[in-house]
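Let us practice reading a record.
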Amino acid sequence: MMKTTLISGAIIGVLSAVWIFGMYRLGISTKPTTDFSPIELTAGLIPLLGLYFGVRAYRNEVLGGQMSFLEGLSESFKILILGGMIAVAFAILFISYVSAMSITDFSGQIFGALLLGLLFSLAVALLLANKHKNV
């Protein structure tokens, strides 16, 4: 794995872990509920910004400023896999030792984060791609 992938994935994973614990410490429920707090939207900024800056660094530092859509998408997936593994590992520890819920209660949120990450990957790869094939 490239240095940019490791750094960006680690940042996403650690910030997501801090966000989970921070929400808990602020008294905002980490359990799935029908109540919605606007502060929960900040969770989406972590992977979005992490992916954007990670893929941009990959394009500029590794690829010399030229990147195709598929190269960006591939790098996005690598970053998300690493960040997701760190975040899920922390979530499991959080659920086991801090929160009084089971992993099945949290699985819906993990699945939602996966879908959001896939959408962000597509958006970031499209936004940063600057090498196009002539048809």
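A brief commentary: The chain has a mean pLDDT of 84.
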